[in-house]
Structure formats: C-alpha cells, structure tokens
Design goal:
By secondary structure, the protein is mainly alpha-helical. The protein contains eight helices and no strands.
C-alpha cells in the first residue's frame, strides 16, 4: 500500500493560497512560488504513491490544475492584485485607492486571499463569466438548503448504484491483480459492449462525487450563515445547452 504525501500536499495548498496575498511586492510572490515549485517536486518524487494508481493520477492532476489557475490569476488578466475585485467589495466601498485589494486592512487581505484561491469559477467576483455559469439560486435560504439536501441525497444514490456496476467486474480495479497476472485479466481484454457500461459507471461515479462534495460544502457554508445561497450555482449546467463543443465545455461542463 502506497503512502499519500499528506504533509507535503497540505503545505502545498497553504503556500498556494498564500501566493494570492494581495500585495504589490513581486519579490513576495517570487519567493512563495519558488517554495511551491519545490514542494510540488517533492510530491512528484514520492515514489511510494503507486497503490492505487488512481491516487498518483489525482495528485498529478491536482498539482497541474493548481499551477494553471495560479498562472491565470497572476499573468493572463490585469495586474495582480487590484484587477480582481469581489462584487461585495465594489458595493460596500465608496471607491478610491482605499478600496483596492492591495490597500485592504490585514484581516480583510487574508479573507480576500482565501476567497480568490478557492474561487475557481470566480462566482461573486466582478470577473465572473456570467454568460456561461448556471443561473444563481434565489436568495431564499431555507429553499436553497432543502433543494441542495435533495441533490446531495440523489447524487449519493447515483454513486451507490454506479459503484454496484463497477463491483460486477473485477477487471476494472487493478488493485486486485497479482503482478504475475496476464493482460487478459484487465479491462482492455473485456469486449467493447461489456466494457462501455463500466467506463460509463466510472465517469458517473466521479461526476456525482464532485457534485455531492459541492452540495455538502454548500449546506455547511450556507447553513452556518457564512455564505449566501446566491454564490452557489449548480455545479453542472443543463445538457440542453451543450449543442456545440464550446458550449459543452463553457456552459455545461465545469
């Protein structure tokens, strides 16, 4: 059984968030970025992360996604940090240089830093892609909590049924294989018509799992009053909007 680099991954996430601290000093971001690259290299060199192989795959994908998002925030739009503005900051300030993120008080800078580091879809920001995200939910808190709870239950049921399909064929899970097993014991050896349901079930499990985690987090944040329900649009868009490849990736798939 392989070792998951918990300490390195946690440090990587902390440094990644700290990278977005709203300061105009480029030296600060250069030092933090160098530390992030070093930690990422240490994670990639953790050879023990091999069992199950899906862990290695997810770790690698997560690190690359984090670097791509950081590059987008820091380099592909206006100058960081003052280009990025939260809607509530725009509404509750009178304007002027004091309302710029780089001039926020220290506690507000920390909150802003965490917000932008966790806002992959930029929901609640001036730069939010409003023409492509699913509609924002109404501000009714009880109705939002009820609907989100139902979505969580539905996705949990979907995960359970999809997992039953995967359990029917041991060829889908490489963890059960002995190193001496031949290639005929793997999924690639299964006939196509039998293979497709297993692949579909695996993708369904991943998609429903993402939505279930999203719904659970929304229930906690909105239920505790730490977030508005309007900041939690649906994770996926409507399949009826996926009539072009661009709309599939821009409006439906996130």
């Amino acid at each position: 059984m392989g070792r998951y680099p918990w300490a390195e991954a946690l440090l990587f996430e902390i440094l990644r968030i700290c990278l977005f601290y709203p300061t105009r000093h480029h030296a600060y971001r250069a030092v933090v970025l160098a530390a992030i690259i070093y930690i990422a290299a240490q994670i990639y060199q953790t050879s023990e992360v091999t069992d199950p192989l899906v862990v290695t795959f997810l770790v690698g994908c997560t690190i690359v996604q984090r670097f791509m998002f950081a590059a987008y925030i820091l380099f592909t739009e206006g100058p960081f940090p003052d280009h990025w503005r939260r809607v509530r900051d725009e509404v509750h300030t009178k304007g002027g240089s004091d309302s710029l993120p780089s001039n926020f008080p220290f506690p507000k800078k920390l909150q802003w830093m965490v917000d932008i580091g966790c806002s992959v879809r930029m929901v609640g920001w001036v730069q939010e892609p409003r023409n492509y995200l699913p509609p924002h939910p109404p501000p009714s808190r009880p109705l939002f909590l009820w609907k989100t709870f139902l979505k969580l239950i539905i996705n949990a049921i979907i995960i359970d049924f999809a997992s039953l399909v995967l359990a029917q064929d041991p060829a889908f899970d490489s963890r059960i294989h002995d190193p001496t097993d031949g290639p005929e014991t793997y999924l690639a050896a299964v006939p196509l018509l039998r293979r497709a349901p297993y692949v579909l079930a695996y993708c369904t499990t991943l998609a429903a799992g993402l939505v279930a985690h999203y719904n659970a987090l929304a229930l906690v944040c909105v239920g505790l009053g730490r977030s508005s329900s309007t900041l939690w649009p649906d994770f996926w868009g409507q399949w009826g909007d996926a009539y072009t490849v661009r709309r599939l990736w821009g409006c439906v798939h996130w």
